[in-house]
Amino acid sequence: MDVNLNIEDKDIHYLKEYLKDKVNPVDLDELAYRLALYKTQETRSHRVMLYNPECEYKVGDLIYKEYPGKIPVGSKKYIEIDCGVVLKVVDVRTRFGIEEVQLKYEGTSEFKKYTDYLDRQKIELLLPHKQAKPCEQMEFLPEDNDPRKQQAPLEKRDFTALKKKLAGALNKESDIAIVSRKVLLKEHLKPLDEIVFTKTKEFLQENKKSEHTEFFVENFAKIKPEDEQFDAYCFALNYRMMKDFKIDFQQTQDVGWGKWNLISVIYYMKKDSPISEANPLVNNMTIANKRNLMQRRRKFDDSLFQENYMRFYLTQREITAGAVKLKPGFFDLGESIEVEVVDERQKKSYLVYYYKDVNLMLGFKEIFERYKALQGTILSFELTEDEKLQFNIRTTKKGTIVDRVHYVPEEKAFKVTDEKIASPVFVNKSIFLDSSVFRTLYEKLKEFRNIETLNKLIHKVFLEFGVKERNYEIHILRLYHILDLIYPVDFKLVEDVILGNDEFVPAEKMAGVFYLDSDAVAEIEEEELKRKESEADEHKKRREELKRKKFERERRIKDEIRRKREERRKKREHEMWEKERLKKEMEEKRILELRKKKEEETRRKEEETRKRAYRAERPQRPKERYKPAGKKFEPGPPKDRRRQEGPHVPHKPPHPPRPPRPKPEFVKPQPPPPPEDELLRKREVPPRRDKEKKKIEEERERAAKVTKPPRKAERRPVDDAMSEDEIKSQIELEKLKEKMKERRQAEKEAEKEKKVAYHDNGGFGGVFASQLDKVVKKEDEKPKEEDKKKK
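-> structure tokens emitted (791 positions)
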């Protein structure tokens, strides 16, 4: 059917009239179907004639014909059609005396497959007519039985093209909003507050996971799902996020109303992964032969992945990052970033992130940890009938035991640990790398990363890890896995370098195996030798420079230490001088205070002496007697009169009376302090006499030398007689005891001789010294007498 699929102004006007009364959004598929009916309404308005071979038909007539039974749609495939079809007459002719009409099918039912099969076989669809003379009258098909009303107005291919064009045309209209395959006039958009989007952003920043539009509308816009306008609010939220907040939010899934997440979360999820580290050698490579490189690469991929193109051999970097690098031509998963994948064995679904621009999938970390995936694990994808992505990881009953590989983020390198792990996955033996390869790469990682071009790095890997006996033979996938441990690299780049340079020669019988050309090997070895010599020279210079810097650093440190010591010494000297000065000042201050105290004491004593002398010299006045008021005060006669020798002196009149003084508070009179010499005499204790002291010491010695009464020996009974051996041992024991006593006695005498502190050689006190010697002799003889008594 020839239908104009372009979107014209009349089509937009027709759709706006249709949307004018719609408050809730309309699906884009529904609008496209309405537009298809609108565009094909003229073709369905013509009346249809019932086919009768005895009637006459002209070009342009529509005929209704039934095809009972099975009709072929392929060489070995047939279909059955329950209802009739409408055919259009395109030609009328006479052949071999038979009147025929050539027909064409313009519908969209399964009968189209039959007509397409006839076109491929170059067979025309013909029917006879005008078989009766004269021809019979034509009959028309009732409108209720017209099969075109039950068929789609356009074919699937044409309908998809019309829908794409319609979406592009509606996006250009200023008064129409189209979001998530839904369409609504902007005048019917529901208003939303800014706080709804603020809360949505805070929620996504905290959880780091995408969420459905319905969740935001229900929790932040406070619209219940049972509300009739719930879809309108979901549409308004999606539209505002795409137009007003497109810097912050991104739609991660377009199923239903879709799911949303922050662009920053999605971006840093990929950026912080080890799979996204920078590779400086991507733009530093040479391809000598670029002719038909794309066709050669496609042919090589077909031979390498002939069993299943969607099979992947996981690298160690992919396992660590939980990612899978996809090949070009992967399944079309739409515009969604979040994709649901299903485990074929466990029938469990997982949510992964699909970055279509870089052919990368993230989010497999949990899956790899569950299976204990190893480098070289085989992972395959498959798209099911219900358009779900299904994956399978190949396992084996035997399993594999290897060393655990740890990723070091600081060095951006992979390191083998001593820990062993047992994994049930099946690994490809020609691709699998043992622990020695990881150790060699970790030890020589700087040497590999100092290489300037990708070609030289590949040469280095050939020489280091290839089979030397077979011209450094190595499989391209093994080469790719080793290169990926040094830098993140794409398998397509490795293929371009290997297939585009002549020094890499493919093996004839083994697909994917390459070896180095002998001439190229000699050149590479010579370059490697020169490079190593230059590196050795640079290393030597670097070592000398480091030694010089170390010497300079040590010299500076010593100078600094010397300077600090000098400063510390000066500081100590200054502190000592200050301390000495303060000490002198304090001493002078103390002497001055003592001098002042002494002067004050002397002054106080002089004052008291003067006062006492004054009191002694001053004549005593008689006591004043109290008289009542109005009487004069008369002093009484003195108690004692001094005898006056000499001439009589007349008595002088008394002094005039003084007013009474105010009595001070009673203070008990204290005696004057005794002189210092008397205090010192009181404090001194008279020394004891030497004789008394000696007597006390002698009494102590006598008390100490008082011996306990000897214990009586117990006699044995007659029945318990001693044997000869016991008697001999007893005698030897007694002799040993006597020797020990003599030795102790000699030691005591030696100690007493040492204790003698005074020797009187016939001088003063000779009598006392002789008596002391006698006392010492008596004390020495006492223990001997006691020993004799014991014996």
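The longest helix spans residues 518-617.
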